[in-house]
Structures are given as C-alpha cells and as structure tokens.
Amino acid sequence: AQSVTQLGSHVSVSEGALVLLRCNYSSSVPPYLFWYVQYPNQGLQLLLKYTSAATLVKGINGFEAEFKKSETSFHLTKPSAHMSDAAEYFCAVSEYNNNDMRFGAGTRLTVKP
Amino acid sequence: DTAVSQTPKYLVTQMGNDKSIKCEQNLGHDTMYWYKQDSKKFLKIMFSYNNKELIINETVPNRFSPKSPDKAHLNLHINSLELGDSAVYFCASSQYGTTDTQYFGPGTRLTVL
C-alpha cells in the first residue's frame, strides 16, 4: 500500500528565509502526490498536486514542489517565508487517482519575525 | 457558497452516548470520505463512498457507521462513544476517476467526557 513519510514534525524558519518541508513516498505504481495546508481550526486546503505531468509543480501562495522519482521524494519549498505561512502541512499520496489518499503525519511550520 | 459543510462544528458529549455528524457537498462530486484527525494531527481515512456505495472501509470499530442517503450527503453515526473517539472528524469529497483534489469540510471537533 502507498504511504508517505514527512521528515520533521516541526520546522521553524525566520521570515524571509527559505522554506523546505520534506516528503518521501512509497508506492508500487506511479503515484499521485499532494501537499495540503491546514491553518488553525480549519480544514485542509490543497497547495499543489503532482499527477505525472511536469515534475516541478507550482502551487498557491508561492509554494512549489519537485517530484524526484530516483529519490522517491516530493519536497515542498518556498523561497521566502511569510508570517501567514505558519500552519500544518500534509503530504499525501494516491496510487489510483485520488480515491484512496494516504496522508503523512504532518509538519508544523513556524515562522519567526 | 460552502463547498463541503459539516454540522455540528463542535460536539461535546458523555461516554456511552450515540451521536451523529452530518456532511453535505454542493460540488456535484460522486465520492465522499470521512477522516479522523487525532490530537497529534495525524489524519487517517475511515470510510469512502462512491455513488452511495462503500468502497473504502478501514479498520474502524463497528460503533462507527456511515450512511449515504444520496451522493451529496455522507453522515457518520457513532454508537457508545468512548474517550478515544475524541478527535476532529473531517468530511471530504471528490470526483472518482479524476486527478482532481479532495475538498475538505471545516471539521467537527468531538469531545467525549
């Protein structure tokens, strides 16, 4: 079965610094990969998704992620962190469209002024 | 317009009680889901319904029973509530067989005393 591992349950960066949230996946077939963001007391919102098209995927709020098959990774980056980026971030994988999606444990991003 | 809505937003109840959470989506999707998010933010799928038919049923106690009266609704009924059932429950919907994302509701925070 497919799964994802998010390295680092908590990442702290300074405002304006690079954001890097790590995600590695395991899948027996070419995966679909997703990054979601959850702001406090809210539901999950899609940031971006990889569905076997371009390996570099651009999402909302300046985030992007690169699919690297050789490394089984799908890390999320943003060149310059903003205070409003503070939230919980979830990586997810699906083997067959998006019907059975499995989430990582989440990474809490803190942005320091 | 709210795409995926859940009621109630908060639910506080005593152990042993029976309670229901309702979910409705107005996106025209044919697949709906229930997820449980525990206190450590871990998000786990519980059930998935496609066209009112159960297609994913993870290892969930029999006390949890989903009901889908139509494609736009997926309710979750919980019998004999236990302390460990305390969590945030998210409903989501998507269109089966596409690479479109799952859309999440705002969540229902269940507290069992």
Contiguous low-pLDDT stretches of chain A (5 residues minimum) are none
Secondary structure class of chain B reads mainly beta
* Spatial extent as radius of gyration of chain B: 13 Å
How many strands, what sense, and barrel or not for the largest sheet of chain A? 6 strands, mixed
What is the secondary structure topology, with strand pairs?
The complex is a heterodimer of chains A (113) and B (113).
Chain A: E1 3-7, E2 10-14, E3 19-26, E4 32-38, E5 44-50, E6 56-58, E7 64-68, E8 73-78, E9 87-94, E10 101-103, E11 107-112
Parallel strand pairs in A: 2-11
Antiparallel strand pairs in A: 1-3, 3-8, 4-5, 4-9, 6-7, 7-8, 9-10, 9-11
Chain B: E1 4-7, E2 10-13, E3 19-25, E4 31-37, E5 43-50, E6 53-57, E7 64-70, E8 73-78, E9 87-94, E10 103-104, E11 108-112
Parallel strand pairs in B: 2-11
Antiparallel strand pairs in B: 1-3, 3-8, 4-5, 4-9, 5-6, 7-8, 9-10, 9-11
Give a short overview.
The complex is a heterodimer of chains A (about 110) and B (about 110). Chain A has about 110 residues and is mainly β. Chain A has strands at about 5, 10-15, 20-25, 30-40, 45-50, 55-60, 65-70, 75-80, 85-95, 100-105, 105-110.
Structure overview:
By secondary structure, chain A is mostly beta strands. Chain A is 0% helix and 56% strand. Chain A is built from no helices and 11 strands. Chain A has strands at residues 3-7, 10-14, 19-26, 32-38, 44-50, 56-58, 64-68, 73-78, 87-94, 101-103, 107-112. In chain A, strands 2, 4, 5, 9, 10 and 11 form a 6-stranded mixed sheet that branches. The mean pLDDT of chain A is 92. With 113 residues, chain B is an all-beta fold. Chain B is 0% helix and 56% strand. Chain B has no helices and 11 strands. Chain B has strands spanning 4-7, 10-13, 19-25, 31-37, 43-50, 53-57, 64-70, 73-78, 87-94, 103-104, 108-112. In chain B, the strands form 2 sheets. In chain B, strands 2, 4, 5, 6, 9, 10 and 11 form a 7-stranded mixed sheet that branches. Chain B is globular, with a radius of gyration of 13 Å. The model of chain B has no long low-confidence stretch (mean pLDDT 91). At the A-B interface, strand 4, strand 5 and strand 10 of A face strand 5 and strand 9 of B.
